[in-house]
Amino acid sequence: MSARSEISTRCVLVAGAGRSGTTWLGKLLDASPNVLYKHEPDNWAALPWFRDLPSRLDPGAGEPAHADTLATALEAAFWTHCLHFIRPPDFRKDFLRPAPWAAWNLGLRTLRKLGVRRDPKLRIPNLLLRQPLDEIVFVWKSVTSNLRLAWMHQQLPDMHKVLILRHPGGYLSSWLRGARREGWTGFGDKRRLSSTVLPFPRPEHEKYAEAYEHGTDFERELIYWIVANETPLLELKEGRDLHVVVYEDLCLEPAREVRRIYDYCGLAFGPQTEQFIAASTSSHDEGYHAVFKNPAKTAYQWRDELDAEQQRTVARYLEGTSLAHYWSRSEGSG
């Protein structure tokens, strides 16, 4: 078995547009005692592993080099430990020896306190592990991989891919809340979006060219949401190739949806995951990045935060996509 196919068989990618619940979903998978989880290893500017892998790929350009980069990056993200990953796991892990792991992390923290500027990129020593490598599932979450999911599937067909979709009203409302509370800038900004959105990856999206160029920031951000979420679903078959999670369904039926995800990924649903589901849905933290939220509140909070004209715009655009059916059975359809 090649290195590329070997990493593929034990790898799960959690993908989604930002502000779509990817962090919560990643932690729901991290709750498995057999999962080694990394939070956006492709989004750390200081870590070079994914640097040569753009957020979108022209399938005809540089594919062999990108394929090698992907395999190398995944191996590095899986087994490399550095000053950016020194916090202990949030959950008990069957494959880790707790005392040696704590000592290893203490050493890395000491290096950081001593002012080490160049992060050591060190492979996790085997003495920290008490299970064979091929029994450990690697889960990584990304908010930059939607437009390369089909290409990744070509390179790593055995990699489990989970795409989370959040109603565009919820995505836009969360973005605007971040601008108000966290001082975020760039909502609907062409300089931020064009390198990802343009040229449109699918002919179905050419109809948005005029609105993208001359419309409001709200429309432009909405068009980004459509392109980022519709593209992988037009290119991959939902099922074995791609497991789709609707954020609102996850909020309202978390245990049911997480069991389905675990089944797709080949993970055993156990008490540790069950306890985290209960904990993360039974209290509400108003912190913007918190994962402990009242799901009944967060699922449709956008209906109280977007004004009537914004909601009509969302409904009009959503109706013209292949994504609308994901919310047609729920209150979130707008």
Task: Describe the fold and architecture.
46% of the residues lie in helices and 9% in strands. The chain is α/β, with parallel strands linked by helices. It has a single domain (3-333), classed as P-loop containing nucleotide triphosphate hydrolases (Rossmann fold). Helix 7 packs parallel to helix 9 (217-235) and helix 9 (217-235) runs parallel beside helix 15 (308-319). The longest helix is centred in the last third of the chain and has 19 residues, at 217-235. It starts with a helix and ends in a 15-residue tail after the last helix. The mean pLDDT is 86.
The gist of it:
The protein has helices at residues 3-9, 22-30, 63-79, 98-113, 149-155, 168-182, 190-197, 209-214, 217-235, 247-252, 254-265, 271-281, 295-299, 302-305, 308-319; strands at residues 11-15, 35-39, 80-81, 122-123, 137-142, 160-165, 243-246.
Question: Mind summarizing the main beta sheet?
Answer: 5 strands, parallel
- Calculate the terminal CA-CA distance, rounded to whole Å: 48 Å
Fraction of residues in helix: 40-55%
Number of domain modules: 1
Strand content: 5-15%
Features:
15 helices, 9% strand, two-stranded antiparallel ribbon, alpha/beta, Rossmann fold, 334 residues, 46% helix, 5-stranded parallel β-sheet
Question: What is the topological layout?
Answer:
Blueprint: H1 3-9, E1 11-15, H2 22-30, E2 35-39, H3 63-79, E3 80-81, H4 98-113, E4 122-123, E5 137-142, H5 149-155, E6 160-165, H6 168-182, H7 190-197, H8 209-214, H9 217-235, E7 243-246, H10 247-252, H11 254-265, H12 271-281, H13 295-299, H14 302-305, H15 308-319
Helix pairs in contact: 7-9, 9-15
